């Protein structure tokens, strides 16, 4: 090596030397700042990788990129620009960089165009937690190591004639340190990728389990159900938007409570997946089977069964045109006419069509399901709602379309002329992303992603909540709900219910039968709070065919009021029912369904029921967990089947594999018992406060489905007092969906939240980040 012979030359720092080293340090500082900004939700290890990836990209693009250009149009030695001076400084240690050496330039082209791109892609993969992260990381590291090897190996084989090692600056800083970094760091990252991929090998099966998907129950007359994949969510969302206001139905309903189904055998009922009873006298029914076939039976008024004829049928008939299509939303009118949306976003309609409520531009009845496509091309319908003789749909991008009878402006077109085909409802909804719709008999309601409620149509009973009785031909915001975030709306015949994100219930409109629950029969022109003395409400129900109302509380209590079997209940009455659907099956007139139902079946114990029965059973267990001095009896086989953590524990010669009693001291007894019970039952029964501890456990054990269940429980229990504590926990356990929900709740109730002790006891960095995000979405504007 040149310079290896003779005494070491003295080192004289020049201005270029200092600038070169300062530039490298500045790039590292910028990389650290950017990594902290972009990697706020990442682990500490991933943030360290981010620092390197950003620094790598900056060096490749801002330093080596100009070197390639200079070398292709000339040489570094003959150039006099600023960046050439920096490379001349490095050229003192390696002369090949001064004279456009073909090997060096070729490798640098690979470095700039391939490694630079891979570094940017790695940044994106880490920040957004992409599945291909380690593939990119390994590829980048291999490229970096290959570049380093091919840069120096050819010169070493020739005796290093181009390298100058006569001074410590050139040898130890320029050659050893800077090039060594690009060997050491890729080597460490390769080891990290190997370790993480090895760990993922044990958790991937659990990660790939289907997510916790629950039924969407949207409006009074709009019946929606979950599909195998998450339902589409209207977009875009603002920072203020709550989670979709649809309430999730945990309790499934026995369809035999509706008399129409009593003539079906137990075997036939066992095939039913979803069902809806409708019609002016509740004499028609539609149901779907587990293999996605659609059947109808009943009176067939106005061809509402869609069988192609006007014949009634007490025996279910299959609708061949809907064969194999998965239903996600269904609604019916008073004619009746029927709207149905499929998982693919297609819209079908049939039945009464005297006012063009089927959306096909005609007025003749639809004897069979027809595909509605006018003005809905490239639109995916995610929710449907029907009034008496008008129709409304919500699309995946948050737009609302309406058509049909319009004598009171219920179509929202600005006139009272009937609308023969779907027309977008605009005016003040033009720039709003809508997440929910509902219809009264001759009125329409929509909820935006920031919890605002808009109403239009007939207002003779005050059902629009605007403080007057005047009809509205275009949407108007319900100003009395200003400052509240509405999650769910439900519309009765001429009254409206709204549920906020704090579990508060408001009602307005007609009150002849006490359906508002106010304690009187006086109509209300503006929203009034009801059930204020009750616990948090999690679901409300009403249907435009009836004058009944129902609500379910957080603890599962179901209340009903309004017209119930001919009686007028003017105050919410506590029932023994487990779900709001039972109210409509047993007390509504007519006894229609207010949403599409999931069906449960009685009979012998299923595997799941048998497992549930044997949980914590000393008679059959072969293992005990001791937590807080209490025993929990379980079965090793079940734990190994259901949980990757226990599978590794009992198959990898852990100490616990040989024990009959395993001591647990990291988690409390209620939390650990609930976790083990979840493995037997797929359900969680914990208050929101304990669900935080269970979320910690689920994170530690890589139980993603359990994490989602915990987040669902926590969301239902959020209050002003605990909102910021829950936000902190969501950040700590990397629960992004819960974090977003808690953040929006805190912003929507900013004044109250900032006055709680939890807000001022929180970590300083989290507090700063919250203030920064809140200011970005306009929370501090007057």
Helix and strand arrangement:
Elements: H1 15-38, H2 44-73, H3 82-91, H4 102-127, H5 133-157, H6 168-207, E1 215-217, E2 222-224, E3 247-249, H7 266-270, E4 272-278, E5 284-289, E6 294-298, E7 313-318, E8 327-332, E9 337-342, E10 347-351, E11 366-371, E12 381-386, E13 390-395, E14 400-404, E15 419-424, E16 434-439, E17 443-448, E18 453-457, E19 472-477, E20 486-491, E21 495-500, E22 505-509, E23 524-530, E24 537-542, E25 548-553, E26 558-564, E27 567-574, H8 580-586, E28 597-598, H9 607-614, E29 623-627, E30 630-634, H10 636-642, H11 644-651, E31 661-664, H12 669-681, H13 688-700, H14 704-716, H15 723-732, H16 736-748, H17 750-753, H18 757-760, H19 764-776
Parallel strand pairs: 29-31
Antiparallel strand pairs: 1-3, 2-8, 4-5, 4-28, 5-6, 6-7, 8-9, 9-10, 10-11, 12-13, 13-14, 14-15, 16-17, 17-18, 18-19, 20-21, 21-22, 22-23, 24-25, 25-26, 26-27, 29-30
Structure keywords:
782 residues; 5-stranded antiparallel sheet; 22% strand
Protein architecture, described:
- The protein has 782 residues and is of the alpha+beta class.
- Helix content is 35%, strand content 22%.
- β12 (381-386) and β13 (390-395) form a beta hairpin.
- α2 packs antiparallel against α4 (102-127) and α5 packs antiparallel against α6.
- The protein is elongated and about 105 Å long.
- The model is unreliable at 1-9, 202-222 and 224-251 (pLDDT under 50).
């Amino acid at each position: 090596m040149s310079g290896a012979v003779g005494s070491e030359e003295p080192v004289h720092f020049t201005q270029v030397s200092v600038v070169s080293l300062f530039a490298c340090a500045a790039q590292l500082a910028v990389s650290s700042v950017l990594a902290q900004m972009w990697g706020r939700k990442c682990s500490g290890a991933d943030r360290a990788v981010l620092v390197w990836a950003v620094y790598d990209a900056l060096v490749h693009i801002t330093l080596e990129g100009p070197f390639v250009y200079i070398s292709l149009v000339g040489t570094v030695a003959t150039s006099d620009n600023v960046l050439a001076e920096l490379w001349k400084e490095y050229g003192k240690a390696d002369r090949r960089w001064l004279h456009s050496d073909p090997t060096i330039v070729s490798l640098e082209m690979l470095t700039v165009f391939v490694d630079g791109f891979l570094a940017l892609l790695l940044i994106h993969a880490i920040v957004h937690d992409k599945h291909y992260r380690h593939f990119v990381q390994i590829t980048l590291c291999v490229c970096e190591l290959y570049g380093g090897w091919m840069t120096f190996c050819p010169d070493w084989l020739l005796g290093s004639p181009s390298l100058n090692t006569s001074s410590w600056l050139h040898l130890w800083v320029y050659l050893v340190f800077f090039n060594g970094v690009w060997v050491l760091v890729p080597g460490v990252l390769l080891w990290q990728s190997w370790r993480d991929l090895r760990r993922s090998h044990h958790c991937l099966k659990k990660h790939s389990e289907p997510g916790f998907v629950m039924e969407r129950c949207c409006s009074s007359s709009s019946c929606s159900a979950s599909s195998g994949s998450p339902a589409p969510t209207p977009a875009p969302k603002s920072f203020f938007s709550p989670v979709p206001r649809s309430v999730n139905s945990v309790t499934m309903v026995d369809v035999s409570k509706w008399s129409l189904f009593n003539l079906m055998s137990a075997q036939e009922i066992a095939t039913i997946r979803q069902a809806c009873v409708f019609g002016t006298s509740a004499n028609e029914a539609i149901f779907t089977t587990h293999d996605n076939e659609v059947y109808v039976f009943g009176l067939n008024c106005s061809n509402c069964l869609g069988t192609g004829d006007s014949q009634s049928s007490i025996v279910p008939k299959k609708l061949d045109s809907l064969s194999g299509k998965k239903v996600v939303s269904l609604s019916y009118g008073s004619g009746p006419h029927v709207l149905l949306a499929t998982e693919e976003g297609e819209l079908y309609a049939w039945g009464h069509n005297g006012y063009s409520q089927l959306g096909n531009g005609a007025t003749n009845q639809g004897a069979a399901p027809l595909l509605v496509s006018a003005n809905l091309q490239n639109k995916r319908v995610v929710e449907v709602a029907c009034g008496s003789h008008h129709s409304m749909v919500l699309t995946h991008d948050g737009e609302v379309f309406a058509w049909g009878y319009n004598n009171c402006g219920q179509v929202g077109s600005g006139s009272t002329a009937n609308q023969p085909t779907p027309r977008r409802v605009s005016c003040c909804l033009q720039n709003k992303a809508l997440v929910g719709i509902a219809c009264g008999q001759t009125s329409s309601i929509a909820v935006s992603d920031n919890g605002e409620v808009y109403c239009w149509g007939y207002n003779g009973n005050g059902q629009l909540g605007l403080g007057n009785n005047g009809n509205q031909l275009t949407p108007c915001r319900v100003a009395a709900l200003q400052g509240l975030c509405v999650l769910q709306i439900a519309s009765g015949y001429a009254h409206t219910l709204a549920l906020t994100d704090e579990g508060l219930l408001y009602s307005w409109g007609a009150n002849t039968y006490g359906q508002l629950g106010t304690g009187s029969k006086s109509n209300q022109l503006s929203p009034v709070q009801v059930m204020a003395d009750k616990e948090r409400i999690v679901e409300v129900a009403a249907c435009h065919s009836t004058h009944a109302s129902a609500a379910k509380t957080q603890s599962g209590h179901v209340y009903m009021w309004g017209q119930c079997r001919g009686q007028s209940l003017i105050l919410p009455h506590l029932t023994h029912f487990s779900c709001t659907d039972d109210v409509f099956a047993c007390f509504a007139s007519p006894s229609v369904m207010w949403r599409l139902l999931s069906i449960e079946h009685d009979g012998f114990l299923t595997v799941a029921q048998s497992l549930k029965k044997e949980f914590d059973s000393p008679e059959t267990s072969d293992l005990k967990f001791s937590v807080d001095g209490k025993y929990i009896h379980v079965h090793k086989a079940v734990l190994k089947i259901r949980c990757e953590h226990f599978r590794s524990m009992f198959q990898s010669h852990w100490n616990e594999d040989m024990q009959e009693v395993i001591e647990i001291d990291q988690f409390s007894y209620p939390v650990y018992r609930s976790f083990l019970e979840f493995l037997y039952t797929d359900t969680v029964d914990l208050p929101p406060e304990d669900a935080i501890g269970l979320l910690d456990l689920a994170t530690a054990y890589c139980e993603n489905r359990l994490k989602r269940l915990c987040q669902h429980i926590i969301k239902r229990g959020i209050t002003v007092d605990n909102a910021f504590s829950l936000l902190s926990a969501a950040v700590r356990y990397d629960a992004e969906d819960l974090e977003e929900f808690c953040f929006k709740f805190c912003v929507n109730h900013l004044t109250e939240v900032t006055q709680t002790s939890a807000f001022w006891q929180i970590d300083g960095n989290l507090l700063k980040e919250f203030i920064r995000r809140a200011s970005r979405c306009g929370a501090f504007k007057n």
